[in-house]
Write a structure and sequence with these properties.
Elements lengths: L3 E4 L2 E4 L2 E2 H8 L3 E5 H14 L5 E6 L6 H9 L3 E4 L2 H9 L7 E3 L6 H10 L3 E4 L2 H14 L3 E8 L21 E2 H11 L5 E7 L10 H19 L6 E3 L16 H12 L5 E4 L3 H4 L3 E13 L2 E6 L8 H5 L5 E3 L7 E7 L8 E9 L6 E4 L20 E6 L2 E6 L4 H5 L10
Parallel strand pairs: 4-20, 5-6, 5-13, 6-7, 7-8, 8-9, 9-10, 9-11, 11-12, 12-13, 15-17
Antiparallel strand pairs: 1-2, 2-3, 4-14, 14-15, 14-19, 16-19, 17-18, 20-21
Bound molecules: pyridoxal-5'-phosphate.
The site of pyridoxal-5'-phosphate has 17 residues, from helix 10.
Length: 418
């Protein structure tokens, strides 16, 4: 669900006409609905109320400071994968005691900073990282709370680029090595084993892979308990999918029911790291039609957003609904909606039936709130889009549009080339 709806054929975000925002800040522009984000978070968290739990919003999905501050106010913790994300979460007011740190390649300086910040838990992804964590913890005299991320070898049946819990993926530690790793960690008093973690992938539309992973985790948890470990946190990661087209992912209540069933017998605090399901449908990318053109049988609508703004279609052949900001005609035609970037992969829709569009029309690319702006780039020296947060009748610029000066400000021409 989301709060992007039409009133008198005009697309609104909550109480604000999308056109009003565009008139003020231009295109391409990301628009987020605060009410949608709040609702998604509260429904998700409430679904787990039967068990002790902490929802650590996955910052990578959308790391705008205003989005983080909004979620922090709702009580969210954060799942971060870099010091950049950690600093964002802290700056947005999310306490370190609610932050978990995942990622296969944490640098030593990042580990030290997170240790000093006092985060809840490191989700460690390799034996060498565990060793490194132990050394740093000892050198700074701060005990390191950690969970090992297990690679449960479960197929999440999603796009291969976003499946992470299979043996062939780079993530986590193979199941059969996990117990030994905890036993080894016991020898370093600066390593504090407090949890167990897995994350199997993203945009998962069926509960069964989550349940399979959880069963694997439970077996390891029980074995560790038998060996005398007193773990507290069972972290199941994120991954619940959203409807982009005709997918039918389980609603959070159903997903939660299946998980609660499994974890109830354990004495633990469940950690969840949802990203997409919180912000995905809470954001749109608005773009303007620059030109129409026909090449043989193909009709193209060229818009002013490109794959540098939203890379999901180019990267994963991902589907995003596209809707006109103003409904003016019932005439339809089949077109490719493409961006200005010099790549054939720069498209938002192929052979899509859409209302006939003209130069200057505004289009909303739906479900762009997750893995949208955060994956944007300056390819083709294009300035990244502005971001706006709508809350009721009010809207706020939460990231300025980049300028050409921003783009070149870090570059240096050596004197001898001048
Ligand atoms: N946790 C970890 C470790 C991740 O890598 C990801 C993303 O893939 C997430 C949580 C969030 O996943 P999603 O946005 O699918 O909920």
């Amino acid at each position: 669900m989301h709060y992007f709806t039409y009133h008198l054929n005009e697309l609104y975000c909550e109480e604000v006409p999308v056109k009003e925002i565009v008139n003020k800040f231009g295109t391409p522009i990301y628009i987020y609905s605060a009410r949608t984000i709040r609702r998604h978070f509260s429904v998700f968290s409430a679904s787990f109320k039967e068990v002790e739990h902490l929802v650590c919003y996955s910052v990578k999905a959308n790391s705008n400071l205003a989005v983080l501050a909004l979620l922090g106010k709702e009580g969210a913790g954060a799942d971060v994968v870099s010091v950049g994300e950690l600093v964002r979460a802290l700056k947005a007011g999310i306490p370190a005691s609610k932050i978990v740190y995942s990622g296969v390649g944490k640098r030593p300086d990042e580990i030290e900073l997170a240790l000093k910040a006092g985060i809840l838990m490191f989700n460690v992804e390799s034996l060498e990282e565990l060793e490194c964590l132990g050394e740093i913890a000892k050198s700074v005299g701060i005990k390191a709370p950690f969970a090992l991320r297990v690679n449960p070898n479960v197929d999440p049946k999603t796009h291969p680029y976003i499946s992470t819990g299979l043996k062939k993926n780079k993530f986590g530690i193979p199941e059969e090595e996990v117990i030994d790793a905890y036993l080894k960690a016991k020898k370093n008093p600066y390593l504090l084993p407090i949890g167990l973690d897995a994350h199997i992938g993203s945009q998962i539309t069926d509960v069964s892979p989550f349940v399979s992973a959880l069963r694997r985790l439970k077996a390891i948890w029980n074995e560790l308990t038998r060996l005398g470990f007193e773990l507290r946190y069972l972290d199941l990661g994120g991954g619940l999918g959203i409807p982009y087209a005709d997918e039918e992912p389980p609603p959070p209540e159903e997903y939660a029911r299946a998980i609660i069933e499994e974890v109830k017998p354990l004495d633990c605090t469940l950690i969840l790291e949802p990203g997409r399901v919180i912000v995905g449908n809470a954001g749109i990318l608005v773009t303007r039609v620059l030109y129409r053109k026909t090449n043989g049988d193909k009709k193209f609508v060229i818009v002013d957003a490109g794959m540098n703004d939203l890379i999901r279609p180019a990267l994963y052949q991902a589907y995003h609904k596209i809707q006109p900001v103003k409904l003016t005609t019932s005439e339809e035609e089949v077109v490719d909606v493409v961006g200005p970037v010099c790549e054939s992969g720069d498209f938002f829709a192929r052979d899509r039936k859409l209302p006939r569009l003209e130069r200057g029309d505004l289009l909303a690319i739906m479900s762009a709130g997750a893995y949208g702006f955060v994956m944007s780039s300056n390819y083709n020296s294009r300035c990244r889009a502005a971001e706006v947060l709508v809350d009721g009748e009010t809207f706020y610029l939460v990231r300025k549009r980049e300028t050409i000066d921003d783009l070149i400000s870090l570059e240096i021409i050596p004197d001898y080339l001048k």
